Amino acid sequence: MPSAALRALQRQRANLIESRSRFIQWMQKALDQMNVRVHRAVTDLTGHTGMAIVRAIVAGERDPFRLAALRDKTCKNSVEAIAEHLTGNWREEHIFNLSISLKLFDEMERAIAEYDERLLREVEALQPEHRRTEPVPAHPNFGKERVIRKRGDQALRQALWRFAGVDLTTIDGLSSSSAQVILTEVGSDMNAFPTEKHFVSWLRLCPRTAVSGGKPLKKRRNGMGASRVASALRMAAVSVRRSKTALGAAYRRVARHTGADVAVMATARKLAQYVYRLLRHGRPYVDIGELQYEARYRQRRLAALTESAKELGFTLVSRPAAG
């Protein structure tokens, strides 16, 4: 099991991230009150382009085209398209609110960076001796490894592999940060959970039917550790909803029939099962892809329809496609 110090640091880091989100909202509110629609110009206010524009506004720049020229070279929107949203009323009280919110955001960023460094040292201290110098296997998904490197999480991914002996980021949707949350709260030893059903139940990712004598019982909450891991898995589930993976196809199939909320829970449950199999049995995650998943689902559905027809005394006959 992970150390108490590691859990304490990880949970406080989560609190700082939550506070940072509040400061981002304050910056957004100040911009909206000045009719400066940065959120229309860029998808992420805290990205390279968004923060460059915010810092320039606080520094005194007001010309929309000069602000738009600060766009990152990878930004899809042109300077002209961004400039259309950057003409505001520039009221001083809102500029002051924006500057203070930016200072608080920067302070929180520095604090989170310090926690990241400390957590990395704690994880390295818990690594078994025989894995501390062992080379980390290459990530099977080159595109995902490129994203990990771009975010600066490669050192964390390698440290977590040496800590647990497996790489949770090989599972679609799981980043280095979400893998850190899981290993911090659960650890690499899954002996406390005899089966994956016990693990999923602990995470509260399965329907709970608390009934005694035909009467429903009061539903009691599990520990906070379970909710933190479940939250990370639900966020991972949302991140795969448009992907060309089997998990993405499963999410979309459930969402079509029962809605997005149920799809998030169902996909998070699948992710929990993959995490358990990887940590408990070392069973690697293999993505069969969207097309193969849909083909398998069609085969299962066809087999069920054939069996139902047989029970009713009918024979299912395929019909040639029109045209």
Description:
The protein is an all-alpha fold. It folds into 2 domains: 4-123; 151-210 and 218-287, no CATH class. It is 62% helix and 1% strand. It contains 14 helices and 2 strands. It has helices at residues 4-33, 38-41, 48-59, 64-68, 79-83, 92-125, 142-150, 154-164, 176-186, 196-202, 224-239, 246-258, 260-281, 290-311; strands at residues 211-212, 215-216. Strands 1-2 form a two-stranded antiparallel ribbon. A hairpin with a 2-residue loop joins strand 1 and strand 2. Helix 10 (196-202) crosses helix 13 (260-281) and helix 12 packs across helix 14. The longest helix is centred in the middle third of the chain and has 34 residues, at 92-125. It is globular, with a radius of gyration of 24 Å. The N and C termini lie far apart (62 Å).
